[in-house]
Amino acid sequence: SSNQMWGGRFASGPDAIMEEINASIGFDKKLYAQDIRGSKAHAAMLAHQGIISAEDKDQIVAGLDTILAEIESGRFEFSRRLEDIHMNVEARLAALIGPAAGRLHTARSRNDQVALDFRLWVKEEMGRTEKALTGLISAFLDRAEEHADTVMPGFTHLQTAQPVTFGHHCMAYVEMFGRDRSRVRDAIARLDECPIGAAALAGTGFPIDRHMTAQALGFREPTRNSIDTVSDRDFALEFLSIAAIAATHLSRLAEEIVIWSTPQFGFIRLSDAFSTGSSIMPQKKNPDAAELVRAKTGRINGALIALLTVMKGLPLAYSKDMQEDKEQVFDAAESLELAIAAMTGMVRDLTVRADRMKAAAGSGYSTATDLADWLVREAGLPFRDAHHVTGRAVALAEERGCELSELPLADLQAVNPAITDRVYGVLTVEASVASRTSFGGTAPSGVRRQIAWWRERL
Ligand code: ARG
Description:
Argininosuccinate_lyase; 6 strands; cytoplasm; Fumarate_lyase_fam; amino-acid biosynthesis; binds arginine; Fumarate_lyase_CS
């Protein structure tokens, strides 16, 4: 038999393959709560405007509440023949309340309905993302506070560069996840327009009140252009873009955790809760959670590219292609939530091996810049000359197989006679980080200033 929702001009029902490619109920049932909320607001508005009677509205609302309860208790039977969540709910409503159900879809199309449901869902999800990011930032702030003075090597090209503090390194991630959080907030503000009432694409002749539904559904205002409203999936693309950038940050952090937890680095120890053993090598403790966070980035990036590709050739307004938006967003959302949660746990639980960090910080001539700066300050050398002199000192130390601070004064003076024994005061890693007092620098005082700034904005 033909479809009961739109079957008026169809003589026979869909082919089985057609049903399979067309149906979205398998995944869009996730939108049931948003769908029912939207329908209740729409029905209330229709009644308020005198488009349907108050009695019909009351029946519709009561029926929708029953359906919500049925779905939430697992008693609702979803049907693939009814394609999607919208028609599953409406068909059940008709079974529950009869002809009044048929009045709900007045001045509405599935095109504005799905735009509404999906916007509501993405908006709620971004609220969760914002909260999760705040939790991760807060974990980093605690670790940064604890380790504002803990010296570790800073790297460029993954080669030892200059000593920094672990607190400062943590605060770099706070900045990154803070930007992600601010992108989420911006996206929520842009998304905050209500699509319902755009109808199929052209609006409607019924005297609807879109400001009323917008307000009832917690949106700032209604969307302004009905064609754009049913064509637009920018809010989903923005969520995926934000997710991809955040996942990139999580992946870089995951990579550092993987490197730092190797015996060769040994900067951190992961808690048992966030590592696994090997089935053959008894000594192993593997950073699986970090690796999986790193890998989730692939799925999330994939989701962004998939939806961009779905959207790129679509003429205005709605095309069925857009039904492919949901699985990408749902999968990316789940992956991102899980990745942030796992990372927050790892950051909170990991043990910092300050002794190992400090030992590594002092190796690789990490205070060479401090020697050059000292020559500028104390001996009045131009920086470029000081750089050259220091380079010769490093070469000498390398030849001797020792650190800069272990070169006898006579050797340093042979490189440049202006060097005095006061230079040894700047060659320690502690002196090095303490000297970096420029705004935003790694000096412990500066790290504490950053922490205070963020605590006020948590
Ligand atoms: N299941 C559809 C989607 O997810 C709902 C909108 C269908 N609209 C239509 N005109 N067929 O996009």
